[in-house]
UniProtKB/TrEMBL annotation:
Protein's organism: Actinomadura violacea
Annotated signal sequence range: none
Top-level taxon of the source organism: Bacteria
NCBIfam families: DrmB_fam (NF038324)
UniProt protein name: DUF1998 domain-containing protein
MrfA-like Zn-binding domain boundaries: 479-579
InterPro entries the UniProt entry points to: DrmB, MZB
Biased segments, Acidic residues type: 323-338
């Protein structure tokens, strides 16, 4: 018998990459579900997204079998709750499978048949399970998900072993074993949460959940069974398990790659021809008459129709003549092409990439080379995996692939992505000034302190030494965080809606700059508030105010005195009160920050790049 799937809620496309992606647990009003693997997504209702540089980077991580980036399946909503749109979406599975009655505290798996699903076609958020125990007032009480689950560092996720726990690891004897999950205090702490069994043999008063938490709890818990609920599969594992609260923030960490859409031609038609060259190249060997007949039948025609057949065909012929002269580019290098596009001397005006130069404010010209305003930017983000327990390393190459959880049962042929459009400001530093600062003795002394913290941090995680990003990166990263805080006060965006891109590299092709851009996926990302701050009549004052705020932290002198070496930290003078930003804003997880490299602090002077 085929079971008709039920719609249980709504998520935005960006949430499927940042918060509730494949394998994540979504806590709905009355249900808790895990987002299903890519094998079960309906590609017929999904659209491919062209971003060649990003696709090449994803292939580097997952393999050449990845053919496309695609949006989540979607059909526009209508007023009919039973129309096709209500049956299209991202598949989810009930998790955890153990549920608790909110009236009688009965704890049982959904397979027991004790709980009944109560659907609601018009309001999917009201779908729930109920228990026939008749709670207060004779109403059928709502059944809620059990509070705890199990996870391991290899990314497996499982129901908490309630029967195992309440019986102290012993196999319960025959007879009825009715479990209850109760709170015996008012604080909600795990020590006040007890599991009891009707047999009352091993623990007559029930067993507290407190011993199931903490660093040594794995000794009292079963080894991991290798369960992947998002794939409905099990695998060999046997690793130590850890108890997590349902909805814990460390139960899912996204692994993403991001790229901006860059101009590859000087006009819009030529740009679109290059973007759709995979389809349009079929026209090259055909005579004009045959090409004109085939062009409207290609999948990309909708993107080109407004230009007309003749103009498109002419652009295809020009592209074919130029293609032989193209130099092969390393499409896996995401930063260099972006830097070159953003710092090109001429303005660009394309639908997905518009830049223009703005002269640097007078007070900053000794160290700020130029300001580039970008009223239109398009960013594409792709999800290629996730981890649990511990976040992935922010350097893709440094992350242990054994911790990365797969998105599908088979090697994926596509990965989900999301697009955001917004605006940004690029601040380009004087290369000579920043190169000279890097060689100052006091800066080299500070580098030795930060680098020892970096090496100890890697050693604690059993990672090989190296991958120090350099003082240039730490300086520019710190400056970006200082400006994000100041810009959020002035431009109308939330601080979490402003993201950063750091371009920091020495050598033959140096880069020294920061891009601050809006990362919001809705209309907030396009109303011009950020670009307006880049005008020289405003930017100079904002930078001055940001630097003044960075000189003193409300946690000083503790913040300024922080030494990263003893405990292996990746930051110096930095904390939540002065520099740390939302995880949607920071590209490096609030690592590699130090106010002392930018300005004078209460404990360090004459080190900062912009010290008085």
């Amino acid at each position: 018998m085929t079971v008709q799937p039920l719609r249980v809620g709504e998520l935005r496309p960006n949430q499927l990459l940042h918060t509730f992606g494949v394998g994540a647990v979504a806590d709905l009003p009355n249900l808790s579900v895990v987002i299903g693997g890519l094998d079960d997504w309906d590609l017929a209702k999904s659209q491919p997204v062209r971003e060649d540089r990003l696709l090449a980077a994803v292939r580097r991580e997952l393999g050449d079998q990845v053919e496309a980036l695609r949006t989540p399946p979607h059909i526009p909503e209508t007023s009919d709750p039973f129309a096709e749109w209500s049956r299209v979406g991202v598949p989810v599975r009930l998790f955890p499978r153990w549920l608790r009655c909110s009236a009688c505290n009965r704890l049982a798996p959904v397979e027991s048949g004790l709980f009944k699903l109560q659907p609601h076609a018009y309001s999917p958020e009201r779908i729930r399970y109920i228990h026939e125990c008749r709670g207060r007032g004779g109403n059928r009480p709502v059944v809620v998900p059990a509070r705890f689950v199990l996870a391991c560092e290899r990314g497996h996720l499982d129901d908490f072993p309630w029967m195992f726990w309440v019986h102290g690891g012993a196999v319960p004897e025959g007879g009825e074993h009715t479990l209850k999950l109760q709170e015996r205090g008012t604080t909600g702490e795990a020590a006040n949460v007890y599991v009891t069994c009707s047999c009352r043999k091993d623990n007559p008063g029930g067993r507290s959940m407190a011993p199931a938490l903490g660093p040594d709890a794995w000794r009292r818990l079963p080894a991991c069974r290798g369960r992947d609920p998002h794939l409905a599969s099990f695998s060999e594992c046997g690793e130590r398990t850890r108890t997590l609260g349902l909805g814990a923030t460390n139960s899912w960490f996204a692994m993403q790659l991001q790229a901006f859409t860059l101009p590859r031609a000087d006009d819009e038609l030529a740009q679109k021809v290059i973007e759709n060259w995979g389809d349009l190249s079929l026209l090259v060997p055909l005579p004009d008459e045959s090409a004109r007949g085939l062009l409207p039948k290609l999948n990309c025609w909708q993107d080109l129709e407004s230009f007309g057949v003749d103009k498109v065909l002419q652009a295809v012929r020009r592209r074919a003549a130029e293609a032989d002269d193209d130099e092969p580019a390393d499409e896996r290098d995401l930063d260099t092409p972006e830097w070159e596009a953003l710092t090109r001397p001429d303005p660009v005006d394309l639908p997905d990439f518009t830049i223009r130069k703005e002269r640097a404010p007078q007070a900053t010209r000794s160290w700020l080379n130029e300001v580039v305003l970008a009223p239109r930017l398009r960013r594409v983000s792709a999800l290629y995996g996730f981890t649990r327990i511990d976040a992935p390393e922010w350097d893709v190459q440094a992350t242990d692939t054994s911790r990365r959880v797969r998105l599908s049962r088979e090697a994926p042929t596509w990965v989900p992505c999301a697009e955001t459009r917004g605006e940004g400001i690029l601040l380009r530093f004087h290369e000579g000034r920043i190169a000279a600062w890097e060689q100052r003795p006091e800066v080299l002394d500070r580098q030795s302190i930060l680098r020892l913290g970096h090496e100890r941090w890697r050693a604690q995680r059993k990672m090989s030494p190296g991958d120090w990003p350099g003082m240039r990166y730490v300086l520019l990263h710190t400056f970006a965080h200082v400006l994000i805080r100041q810009f959020a006060l002035e431009c109308g965006y939330n601080a979490s809606g402003i993201a950063e891109r750091i371009y920091a590299r020495s050598g033959d092709r140096p880069m020294a700059g920061i891009l601050l851009y809006t990362a919001a996926p809705d209309s907030e990302g396009t109303f011009g508030g950020l670009v307006s701050l880049g005008r020289r009549d405003r930017l100079g004052d904002l930078i001055g105010q940001a630097l003044d705020a960075a000189r003193l932290c409300s946690s000083d002198p503790l913040c300024a005195q922080h030494d990263p070496r003893p405990h292996g930290r990746l930051f110096g003078a930095a904390c939540h009160a002065c520099l740390f930003a939302a995880e949607t804003s920071c590209e490096h997880g609030n690592h590699y920050l130090d106010r002392a490299l930018l300005v004078d602090t209460v404990t360090d002077a004459d080190i900062g790049f912009l010290a008085r």
